[in-house]
Amino acid sequence: MGHASTLSVSLTGLDGSMVEVEADVSPGLPAFALVGLPDSSTLQAKDRVRAAAARCGLHLAQRRITVNLSPAWQPKHGSGFDLAIAVAVLAAQEDLPQPPPPDTVLLGELGLDGVLRPIPGVLPALLAARDAGARRAVVPAGNLPEAQLVEGLDVEGAEHLATLLLRWGADIPPPPDREEIPGTGGAAPREDGSAGREDTATGDAPGGHSPDFADVIGQAQARLAAEVAAAGAHHLLLVGPPGAGKTMIASRLPGILPPLGTEDALVVSAIHSLSGGFDARGGLLRTPPFESPHHTASAAAVVGGGAGIAHPGAISRAHAGVLFLDEAPEFSARVLEALREPLETGDVTLHRTRSVTRYPARFQLVLAANPCPCGKAWGKGADCSCSPLQRRRYLSRLSGPVLDRVDMRLHVGPADIHRTAGEDTEPSAAIAARVAAARERQAARYAGRPWSTNAHLPGPLLRGEFAPAPAERRLLEHAVAQGRLTLRGHDRVLRLAWTLADLAGADAPAADHIGLALTLREGDRR
């Protein structure tokens, strides 16, 4: 009887740190103490470890067992420490003649029958372990496809605790043969009982039909705005009556975005792994995510948070993709105002009593709104039953500071079927090709800089090194002088103009690009 230790990983958001799991078995009254600031789910590992070890043929010693999760000042969350605790305790009571090597990280939740169950967050945990110097890792078999995405680690998957104990020299019978191990086939279940979330707009629709811009009838200006938004990673507001095609256009935006680069794909995959909805059998997530929360969603669901542990919200799951708020004025003011800082900084910081968690949140915001509560205040508005005060109150729910951060604000009218009958609408593939070419021009122009799209071009450089000629900016400066644009709006119009120039293949924005950008910014009610 003595002392042993293993390694595991503690996650705070996407940031992980190594945890040394120390076990001491000493004479004294039988007890099992788990210290080191564990939360309730980690503290319950004592009972899971005791039952799982007994099922494998090993019983915990009737002595005083103390397990310390070091560093002890750092809060520990979740059931992923179960495997490391079990191995450390059994090694301390000399049941494992050949314990795992000291550079091996152990992750996994134990079932009472000894089965290793998958846990969320394996991808960011192993990335942190690799960066901290670990060379090997053992994870549940259900997490193995995800763990194998981490390069530089020798990863092994196991279905049962007994399999690992036998490998490390324990004198126990082999585990029972099982045709299917519950809980090891794919992503960890969510709180609502589903097996994990799928991309809400990038997969095929029911019946095998993928959302395509060829389905959108008319709406040439809105289609152009969507193309510009995709090409430069700009934000977009669509205001129009019900049935005008606002949701159709927004849901088709991910289909014209270029695939994610390796760095973005790794971050997006890590966020979805932490959320418990990442199916790693297809590799890293390369399709830009699409999130569309309901207007009744709380601030914690959209921005992130929760009791005790700050979980990623919809804005983080939409990182490097699209966040679509349909019926935007119906969202609570708290949710809408909470978007202001992430729209500027590209991340969100969530403060809790014992920790500060940061999640990336660099998303494209697409808002859709009706012109009034009844939705009929379009054109002459003869069918609208709303009073002028009700209309003002409805649209004023989108505050000035939020709207000032939206690059394009467009009015979308009802589609004229008779005028557009017989017209061939452009498919998403053709638009995506232009978007990809514009993104390549931006990547070449900003090579060696910490951004790659026009939407993230800093204001000082936009007004200096990348400023158009003074003669081309005359219309824009006139709009600022009249008070129609703030300085932030001035910069966003210039960014839009650069994107329009990239789509046109021009080397720099001209007066017509700035004029069109100003029209897209201020809106043009038809």
Describe the protein's architecture and organization.
The protein is an alpha/beta fold and 526 residues long. It has three domains: 3-167, 2-Layer Sandwich (Ribosomal Protein S5, domain 2); 213-446, P-loop containing nucleotide triphosphate hydrolases (Rossmann fold), CATH 3.40.50; 457-526, Helicase, Ruva Protein, domain 3 (Orthogonal Bundle). The chain is 34% helix and 16% strand. The protein is built from 21 helices and 18 strands. The chain has a five-stranded parallel β-sheet. A four-stranded mixed β-sheet has the order 1-2-4-3. It has a three-stranded parallel β-sheet with strand order 5-8-9, sandwiched between helices. α5 links the parallel β8 and β9 (154-158). α17 packs across α20. The longest helix has 18 residues, at 428-445. The radius of gyration is 28 Å and the shape is elongated. The N and C termini lie far apart (82 Å). Residues 179-207 have low confidence and may be disordered.
List keywords for this structure.
Rossmann fold, 3 domains, 21 helices, elongated, five-stranded parallel beta sheet, 526 residues, Helicase, Ruva Protein, domain 3, four-stranded mixed beta sheet
How many domains comprise the coordinates?
3
Number of E-state strands: 18
Whole-angstrom Rg: 28 Å
CATH superfamily of the largest domain: P-loop containing nucleotide triphosphate hydrolases
The neighbouring-strand order within the major sheet is: 11-14-17-10-18
Describe the largest sheet. 5 strands, parallel
CATH architecture of the largest domain: 3-Layer(aba) Sandwich
Could you say what the CATH topology of the largest domain is called?
Rossmann fold
Spans where pLDDT lies below 50 across 5 or more residues? 179-207
Report the CATH C-level class of the largest domain. Answer: Alpha Beta
Helix content: 25-40%
Q: Kindly state the mean pLDDT as a whole number?
A: 88
Give the distance, in angstroms, between the N- and C-terminal Cα atoms. Answer: 82 Å
